[in-house]
Amino acid sequence: MGHWWERNILEPGKLPLLLALGAFVITFVVTRVITRLIRAGRGPFGNVKAGGLHIHHVVPGVVLTVVGGFGAVAADRHGAGGAVAAVVFGVGAGLVLDEFALILHLDDVYWSEEGRKSVEVVVLTAALVGLLLAGFVPFGVNDMTQEELQDRGGVIATIAVNFLFSLVCLGKGKARLAVFGVVVPLIALFGAVRLARPGSPWARRCYRRRPRARARSVLRAYRHDRRWSGPRRAVQDWIGGKPDPRPVGAAHDR
């Protein structure tokens, strides 16, 4: 275990990344526990207010992210300063992304259906950072041999092809596959060769005169959503709490 830690974490300088990821996940979990207790009216916690203004935790999150980010840039990643800056950045990022939906909609949608986007972004971010921590390099350059890495043309071609696959996934309305495909190329390839989702730019342009392809796209999307939307919502509710049944425009007091 000690040899693995030294070889895979300390020597490559990944300790700050590990600390940032740990602080990010822990901050998100603790924040969600506290907000759910506030929502249920339990515990000693309450909303932070200043002069009647509700201070959302995205505000201190932005401050911590800025401080931790600049601190990480200025510090040595192998030193104690880099580790402290990484923890500060992780805490700030956890607070900010926990209210990602609020930033996106410019409205307090924390406990609404739109608030699920915060949970999705947090899970997606944690998964991507975990892949980077495990050694996956964006665009699959880590899959190349040493001889291929020495060939600059081969590296550029690999990056270009994988980036193209990710763009195709994005154009087909498969944002999650596009994001993960940047790190794991086979995921992008899988999404690129399959039918586009209805309503995506690819479907509107390429299926306009292909009624069969358009119908297959709609049917496949319907079957996919019917199969996975329920489990996905259940996991999101377990992680972030069940959305409030009130209208999106209503006030959401935490």
Automatic annotation (TrEMBL):
Q: Does the keyword Transmembrane apply?
A: yes
Q: Which UniProt keywords apply?
A: Membrane, Transmembrane, Transmembrane helix
- The record lists the membrane-crossing segments as 15-34, 55-75, 81-106, 118-141, 153-170, 177-196
Query: What's this protein's name?
Result: Integral membrane protein
Which species?
A: Streptomyces bungoensis
